[in-house]
Design a protein that fits this description.
Blueprint (H helix, E strand, L loop, with lengths): L3 E6 L7 H16 L2 E4 L3 H7 L3 E3 L32 H10 L4 E6 L1 H14 L3 E5 L15 H22 L1 E7 L6 H9 L4 E3 L7 H15 L4 E6 L10 H10 L3 H11 L8 E6 L11 H19 L5 E6 L2 E6 H7 L9 H8 L8
Parallel strand pairs: 1-2, 1-4, 4-5, 5-10, 6-8, 6-9, 7-8
Antiparallel strand pairs: 2-3, 10-11
Helix pairs in contact: 1-10, 2-3, 3-4, 4-11, 5-6
Amino acid sequence: MQKRIGILTSGGDCPGLNCAIRAVVSHAKLQHDWEVLGIPYATQGLLERKTTLLNLHGLDLRGIDPLLSMGGTILGSINKGDTLAHASEIIASYRALALDALIAIGGDGSLAILHQLACQGNWNLIAIPKTIDNDVALTERAIGFDTAVNTIVDALNRLTFTAASHDRVMVVEVMGRTAGHLALHAGIAGGADCILIPEIPYSIDGVCHQISELRDRWGRKFAIVVVAEGAKTANDSSIAETQNFASLECGMGQYIANQIKSHNTLTDRLDVRVSILGHIQRGGIPSALDRLSATAFGKAAVDLIAREQYGQMVAWQNGRVVDVPIVDVVARSPLPVAPDNYLVQTARCMGIYVGDG
């Protein structure tokens, strides 16, 4: 039986979204001859009942398929607004568009909202996880994470040469919201000396001891400090310092730099600079791993619809694609880094300061 399915991308963009869209359209059309409607700007597109009919070759450039290597999302995305305030209208739009199922590609926040709408409206919903933060529960891998790690590692490679040339401490602030997966993975792969993440308490004493050790024991006159944007203030910051940080609304990178500069054992000895990578981490050409993951996820999502197994999210576990209940994903997300995570232990074995654990 021919089906009419919708697909949307919600939340912040990331590399690999177009690969997943491509896989869904290819598998749905070639294997099932289904109609696939792209819904622009996620729930806003649903609210306005806007759709684009997607086909295998509609975006070809003289026969060349650009979607594998195109960052962002051809469908557009939103990560703001009060979607639930328009819940009844959005729910009605699903029926008005005569959809048999909806594939939603999103992070933990988007999936929580869409799951709530699906439950209220009795939608046939399938989810695909995407986020550079890698904090969606029950999946080892989300679309966009690998490319973002590679982007940060490339930046750390470049900053290391400048730090070494000028005897500087480079503080690099990366994304991740309330989770430290991005900072931890990129910090290890990029040769950081300190990695500060939200889940593990740390002290400025500990950071400065690491820097001093590099200089006094090993003759290293530079250091790389990677800090997640959601990291907490240091254990040894005074109440006044913490309040001042909050009032200034500066980022964690600048906070750490200021704390290092003012540390009594290192005053006037260090040239500390801050690099905030910001949204550059979201952009770029998707890595091979993100292309593979996105393609496998897209294929699996269509298979779930063919079997009419709804309310599921495709996930990567133990080297293969599986499906898990969306309700369980929502209940356990966002997923933090466990303090005893094997990569935390790995970092410490490599001599990296990862907090006072």
